């Protein structure tokens, strides 16, 4: 099979299309012919040489990617409820930038017909991260949530999830993305110097919780505005979280959660813009874009 992989850590240019052995589905597993795979800052960190602590020291070449959509083409022993030919979306630990990926059958959900491949391939990280974060801070009806990086994939999902729970959402973004945030039900605010004062002017009753998708100054502003640090979750400043007393996202991804939001998208009740789709041959370009830290919606790779 073809895969976008790297033989040693490096910049985006380290990603090359390689011919690698196709994985085979074992007991309880399915193999998926990938049509689209989401791209995340997590993937760029893996490409640069980092591995999360729950993964072994994998050999090279390594294949990034932990979210995908495609067609099941192989079903291992003991699998029920999933069959060859099923269109699915799912998640993995790595290996999704490839023509084939093998995962436990419990880690895929049916892809509704109304969900495009590019959306399906990039949905899981955004909705799983956003809902786990909001669950962690215990956001309730009538509260105010500050979302930094609100126009990105996770931010867009978080705004909608919070609004569905009855919260007021203030979202930071470049002015070009303010109409997008308004369409989701958020109150937009431009980031940069004076942000804390601008948010105070909008949140006359105070800010109850914050989701930091930007780090740096955004996290400083969250600490200034939110009284209970346990109600701040950062997606980027993992090294500072324990010292500052703020949260990182915890909890398990589930196929149920993924399937629920895919169904909402198909019903027209959930918005998930795709910023740009890159072919597998230009996975490096996808990484260059994701590393800018800016942009509305999701970057995906198509295969």
TrEMBL record:
Keyword field contains Transcription:
no
Residue span(s) of domain Enoyl reductase (ER): 10-301
What the entry lists under InterPro entries is as follows: ADH-like_N (IPR013154), ER (IPR020843), GroES-like_sf (IPR011032), NAD(P)-bd_dom_sf (IPR036291), Zinc-ADH_QOR/CCCR (IPR051603)
Superkingdom of source: Bacteria
Keywords linked to the UniProt accession: NADP
Q: Please give the Gene Ontology molecular function terms for this protein.
A: oxidoreductase activity
What's the protein called, per UniProt? Answer: NADP-dependent oxidoreductase
